[in-house]
Every structure is written in structure tokens, then in C-alpha cells.
Amino acid sequence: MLNKALSDRVRIVLEKNKAERHIRGGEATRKKYKYYKENL
To answer: What InterPro entries does its record include (predicted)?
Structure first.
């Protein structure tokens, strides 16, 4: 391993992003359909 401390920090960030991914995906879908509803 090149740098244990850096590896640990990266793992924490990636785990957080993975945990939040479904929330961000839902927000994007709501924005998309709201846009279509209001503009088409």
C-alpha cells in the first residue's frame, strides 16, 4: 500500500458517497420530471 492514511480517507469518502447515491439519484429524477411537466 502506498499511503495507509490516504487510503483510509479515500475509503471513508467513497463509503459516504455510496450511502448518499440513492438520495442524489432521486433528486435528479424529481427535477427531470418537474422540468418536463412545467415546460412541455
So the answer is: Spore_III_D (IPR014208)
